Amino acid sequence: MTALLEKLHLRPRSPLVIACLAALALIGTVDYLTGFEVMFSVFYLLPIGVAAWFIGKGFGLAMSVLSVLVWIIGDLQAGKHYANPVVPVWNAVILAAFYFIVVWLLTSLRSLQRDLALRVKQRTEALTREMTERQRLEEQILKASEREQRAIAHDLHDNLCQHLTATALAGQVLTQTLADQSRPEAADAGHVVKLVEQGIDLARNFARGLYPVETDAEGLMAAFHDLAGNISKGAGLQCVFECESPVLIYDDAIAAHLFRIAQESVRNAIRHGKPKRIGINLSEHNGQVKLTIEDDGLGVPDNLSEKPGLGIRIMAHRAAMIGGTFVIEPAATGGTIVTCAFPKAAYQKP
Predict the structure, then answer these.
(1) 62, 94, 255, 315: least surrounded by Cβ within 10 Å?
(2) What is the CATH code for 214-346?
(3) Non-local CB neighbours of 117 within 8 Å, separated by 6+ positions
(4) pLDDT (tens digit, 9 = 90+) per residue, 237-257?
């Protein structure tokens, strides 16, 4: 109803003016034909109300005066006689005052309605700007975090790992030298070399965890394969990665978001679901890329929709950042299914 009134208000005023005058003429004619014994003064409120609401106070007052004149002239022409000539004047003044009050009420209400609509519009625009700015800041924070993690990962891999590798080589030379001299310290030196090599593996794994996706189209599939292997070894359960046909992701940011979603989903499954098997599936079908993480654990908590954790909210936000959807639902055979899908156009090669 409000939308209809707004459309009428936005229409040109000339047709409304003509319609009000035509309605006044029609009501006046009917009033004259029915005679002065039947009161028709209330029906004049229709053109008066339309004039006041859609055109303005001035035209509403003018319609009020015209309505009073039409009413009096109609009664006089119909043969109504007054004992005192002051009576019709008094009746006209009272009726005009009533119409004026109605016009004032309608225009005041219309003004309040416009002010309220304006405030609602301004508030909505402010909230939209605030939400847009907040989303922009969140995206910048995530991008900055990814850049920082990538930089740290590269420093660990390119600097620390190389330094430790050189140290291990030097230790091997020292171990061999001590062994050639039949020194008992050779065993200790060999143990130190093993510790350094373990440190190299730890640094590489840490770097891979910070930024596991290689900067090429097939990097995401390789990262998922490594993730499944590491989970199988470290968590004592079966974790497999399935991809029937290659899914090439050319956008590094999209690949990073997808990996983080899968990584967090697997962590949640292990932490809360106690599964024996976790499957990571990446597929492309009908212009959509779909990432699915399914486990055979305890299933979706009952209060998940009411109180989603920070990790779930971050995953949903990551999915939204790449223009995708994020759904957590119970699996048909028990357990949980996490699905993130987004359009193919978002990752096509430029």
Answers:
(1) 94
(2) 3.30.565.10
(3) none
(4) 999 999 988 888 888 888 888
- Residues 19-78 have pLDDT tens digits of 999 999 998 888 888 877 777 788 889 999 999 988 889 999 999 999 999 888 887 787
- How far is 74 from 30, CA to CA, in rounded Å? 9
Residue carrying the six token digits 């440190």: 199
> At which residue do the structure tokens 């009428």 appear?
8
Is the separation of the CB atoms in 253 and 143 below 8 Å? yes
H/E segment holding residue 148: helix 86-155
CA atoms within 13 A on the CB side of 275: 29
Mean per-residue pLDDT pooled into runs of 10, the chain (350 residues): 52 82 90 78 89 90 92 80 81 91 93 90 90 79 73 72 81 84 83 82 67 68 88 87 88 85 90 89 90 89 71 87 89 89 69
Rounded to 5°, the CA angle 341-347-350 comes to 165
Distance between CA atoms of residues 48 and 61, nearest Å: 8
**pLDDT at position 105, please?**
94
Helices (H) and strands (E) in the chain, counts: 10, 5
d(CA 336, CA 333): 9
Helix axes 161-180, 185-210, angle to 10 degrees: 170
Q: Which of 199, 313, 232 is nearest to 224 (CA)?
A: 232
Task: Judge if pTM exceeds 0.70.
Answer: no
For residue 329, give Cα distances in angstroms to 155, 196, 224, 262.
39, 45, 22, 15
pLDDT at 265: 92
> Which residues sit opposite 326 in a β-bridge?
340
In the numeric block, which tokens belong to residue 219? Answer: 């990097």
Residue 56 CA to residue 17 CA, distance in Å, equals: 11
Contact 289, 341 (CB under 8 A): yes
| Residues in a beta bridge with 342 | 289
DSSP bridge pairs for 328: 338
Q: Which of 69, 68, 39, 64 is nearest to 49 (CA)?
A: 64
Are 57 and 104 in contact, with CB atoms under 8 Å apart? yes
Element containing residue 284 per DSSP (H, E): strand 277-285
The pair of structure tokens assigned to 349 is 């090669």
